[in-house]
Specification:
309 residues; alpha/beta; 5-stranded parallel sheet
């Protein structure tokens, strides 16, 4: 028989939103646990440099995530890293979260599961994932010292990654589906200080030919339909994110893109179930907005538990 534990609040996810929520929850004297299927810190961990978080001119994402985690731990937050969630039941009447070891019966739940990188839409992705197709420059960039790299995307994540990869790559080719970059101008300026960077505009990758190494990459110009081959040793992909809401999709309302809908109090359609961070339906997804969401969700969860809603 699994242990059954009655608890005030279960927070699902230990990224910036979840950790912030946990800090507020514990300070409000709520019996709280944070369940994280993967690594504490979420997407921040993969940011080489964070320059837009108040209080820090510049700080690595890994260091900032560690500071957030340590802050929570010092306050007594119970964080279950790699705490795999087997099932959930979220209704107005009950909130049950089952892990490998424990069945939690919570008064309130905050969903802060975040999002994951959108995969490169080519038939070969599954076979080449982690071999020559990558999604984390910090994790895999050093594998390409002195080699040629293709970076897919034109937003902040792509341009920041490309800048980081210049320390290793012999050359970097950015493949972007539009004719302008969407990244902040300061990040573009920093990237193009490097002479070994070029851009292929209005194009998308259609196929990656090769087994354990790339023989050729087939790209298509989305305006003309013309196909051509380019060569590279590795591909780093930054084409957006997919919300990680599968585990709760049977209970909370999602928008057409799979993000969880919520009101201004972070409340979902289920009483006592709140959402925070990148998994929430919203226009701006930044580190600071995740922290804001976590604050609002925790304060309203405490209000709900105490009977104020």
């Amino acid at each position: 028989m699994k242990e059954e534990r009655a608890i005030d609040l279960v927070i699902i996810g230990a990224g910036a939103a979840g950790l912030t929520a946990s800090i507020y929850a514990v300070r409000a004297k709520l019996d709280t646990i944070v369940l994280e299927n993967e690594i504490v810190g979420g997407q921040i961990k993969n940011s080489y440099s964070v320059e837009n978080f108040p209080g820090f001119d510049v700080i690595s994402g890994d260091e900032l995530a560690s500071k957030m985690e340590n802050h929570a731990l010092k306050l007594g937050v119970d964080i279950n890293e790699f705490g795999y969630i087997k099932s959930v039941k979220l209704t107005d009447e009950e909130k049950i979260i089952e892990t490998d070891d424990v069945i939690y019966k919570a008064k309130a739940v905050i969903i802060a599961t975040g999002a994951k990188p959108r995969e490169l839409p080519v038939p070969e992705e599954k076979d080449l994932h982690g071999k020559v197709i990558h999604y984390c420059e910090l994790c895999d960039g050093a594998l390409y010292d002195g080699k040629d790299i293709v970076v897919v995307g034109g937003g902040n994540s792509a341009i920041e990654a490309a800048t980081y990869l210049t320390r290793y790559a012999k050359s970097i080719t950015i493949v972007h589906q539009f004719d302008t970059l969407q990244a902040e101008k300061s990040d573009q300026d920093e990237l193009f200080k490097h002479k070994n960077v070029n851009v292929i505009w209005n194009s998308e990758i259609r196929n990656v030919v090769g087994d354990n190494k790339i023989e050729k990459i087939i790209i298509e110009n989305v305006k003309t339909g013309e196909k051509s081959d380019i060569h590279s040793d590795g591909i780093f992909v930054y084409i957006g994110y997919v919300p990680k809401a599968d585990i709760v999709k049977d209970y909370v309302t999602l928008n057409k893109w799979g993000y969880i809908e919520a009101d201004e109090n972070m409340g979902t359609n289920v009483k006592g179930v709140f959402v925070a961070g990148d998994v929430r339906d919203k226009k701006i997804r930044q580190l600071t907005t995740a922290v804001s969401d976590g604050t609002i969700a925790a304060l309203n969860a405490e209000k709900y538990i105490s009977g104020g809603r």
